[in-house]
Design goal:
The chain is of the alpha/beta class. It is built from nine helices and seven strands; from the N terminus they run H-H-H-E-E-H-E-H-H-E-H-E-H-E-E-H. A seven-stranded mixed beta sheet has the order 1-7-6-2-5-3-4, sandwiched between helices.
């Protein structure tokens, strides 16, 4: 985006505004199209190549190749000047003990960007996403976890953590609509207590409402979008589910209240 802006120097402000907006339309639609093609191509190849593998190797190959594909896409976002990304904090979780990664959830891009940084991350997804013909096949190959029914979700998440993997769970249950944080579900604490692992707080900060709850997918944002992920405290399981959930909610709310971003949440449709 900086090079694109530099190319506009010398034009009148009105012309510059029009050209910059045209670039934002081109970048937004182009990147969405690229993502759709990448997901479709990855799904077709994965369905052809991975099913003959043993379950453990199939899951590992699916997750690693998914990470690589999303890493490539995040590089495209940066190269196109659409995003300014700071995701390296997730890299520090590689090779560490199993944890439940519990971030806030401002946009529908969150899972893609988090999955681009870790090769063994099991995402807990809503049933409609697991059953989606476009996304569901890849999610099932990667061993992602369906959020419903709750008992099955807890059982599969605990098994994943005992195996040594990480579980990505958005404790708000949906994208944020009430700044700075929706009321949390108790799922993270229940899983943490059963598996005997801590909850790793993660804070997502962004300065744009793009792809937030109610944002039309083809509505074009102002670019570039600044997007940062940082790690907060690591919370040990509490003696009672409500106590652990309250501690997680306090920690996320405290971290977000100190951040200058995300103030648009709940008014961005």
């Amino acid at each position: 985006m900086r090079s694109a802006c530099a190319a506009l120097r010398g034009y009148s402000p009105a012309v510059t505004t029009v050209l910059k907006r045209a670039y934002e339309y081109l970048a937004t639609y182009g990147l969405l199209a690229i993502l759709a093609v990448m997901i479709l191509a990855w799904t077709i190849l994965a369905l052809i190549l991975l099913p003959p593998l043993p379950a453990r190797r199939r899951r590992a190959a699916a997750r690693y190749s998914m990470m690589a594909a999303f890493r490539l896409f995040s590089g495209m976002l940066t190269a196109a000047g659409a995003y300014e990304l700071e995701l390296e904090a997730i890299d520090t979780l590689r090779g560490g003990p199993p944890v439940i990664l519990a971030p806030n959830h401002p946009t529908s891009a969150d899972a893609i960007l988090l999955l681009s940084r870790h090769p063994d991350l099991a995402c807990i997804l809503k049933p409609e996403l697991m059953g989606n013909p476009f996304l569901g096949a890849g999610a099932r190959l990667a061993g992602f976890i369906r959020s419903d029914p709750p008992r099955r979700m807890i059982r599969e998440a605990v098994a994943e953590l005992r195996r040594g993997g990480l579980v990505l769970l958005f404790p708000e249950g949906t994208r944020t609509t009430c700044a700075p944080l929706n009321p949390l579900t108790g799922s993270a604490e229940v899983i943490a207590r059963h598996a005997g692992v801590p909850i790793q707080v993660a804070v997502i900060e962004t300065d744009s409402p793009y792809l937030s709850k109610g944002w039309p997918i083809f509505k074009v944002p102002r670019l570039p979008i600044r997007y940062r992920v940082r790690l907060g405290r690591r919370l040990e399981p509490a003696g009672h589910p409500d106590g652990g959930t309250e501690a997680l909610e306090r920690e996320l709310a405290r971290e977000l209240s100190a951040a200058p971003q995300n103030r648009w949440l709940g008014r961005a449709a």
